[in-house]
Amino acid sequence: MFRNLFLLFFLLGSCVKALADTAAVEDKGKELYLSYGCALCHGRNGSGDGINAQKFNPPPTNFHNSSAYLHGADGDSIRRSVQFGIKEDNSIMPAFEDIPPEELDQIISYLKSLQTDDSIKDLIVSNAWVQAMPPSQTTTAAYMIITNNSQQEAVINSASSDIAGATEIHQMSQINGMMKMAQIPNIHIPAQGKVDFEQGGYHIMLINLKKSVNKGDIVPMTLHFQDGRTIIVNAPAKTDGEEESSSMPGMKM
């Protein structure tokens, strides 16, 4: 009996120590995050609201939203974004190649600790892209795959984008042998399922564009779900034939 109690206390002590060690790494990571100037754009608490945030469109990543990372929210993706930087149209983040590996690990631990919304993590946006259009065109379309890894159905009620006067969910369908496009009120994503937004099917229309959408631009969009959740998507503008190489697990660093 005493041996079992000893083992129990030993295991509890190990768990407490592990939690304390993790917290210490995250705290050190936040110190480094601040000392390297990340807060100037991303805010002191990683919410994307730093004093320089208004200078950028799309805005700096909100690290609390795992779907808002341009190149993925896992540790390796964050590491690549920090080490090599981001230079895609208006999305510019300098490369921090000289950060020592141990310090970079601590910063990554801090950033991952901010990803607290498990319900959003269950919804993954991948292969997002927007059709690049000539400057004379005022409408374009966005495509992506949305995977729902949760046990509950997810419903997209609407989408929005700062670059468009109106953003609508549309569906192409064949009626009497003719392809027709119509606006639809929502899209249901089944539990443990996915929905493809693709040419000839579901897509998001960006109408009355406020700026031209050129190849290589990053187009920000927000998906609004029936239960109040939102996912920010930063989709690269591509021409036909390029989209198959696109992959964006979860939306943006």
H/E element order: HHHEEHHEEEEEEEEEE
The secondary-structure class comes to: alpha+beta
Helix count, per DSSP? 5
Rg: 21 Å
The stretches of 5 or more residues where confidence is low (pLDDT under 50) are 5-19, 244-253
Terminal-residue CA separation: 52 Å
CATH superfamily descriptor of the largest domain: PCu(A)C copper chaperone
Q: Fill in the CATH topology of the largest domain.
A: Immunoglobulin-like
Q: What general outline do the C-alpha atoms trace? A: globular
Give the count of structural domains: 2
Q: Which sheet architecture does the biggest sheet show?
A: 10 strands, mixed
Mean pLDDT: 81
Number of E strands:
12
Strand content: 25-35%
Helical content (DSSP H or I, runs of 4+):
25-40%
- What's the level 1 CATH class of the largest domain? Mainly Beta
CATH architecture tag of the largest domain: Sandwich
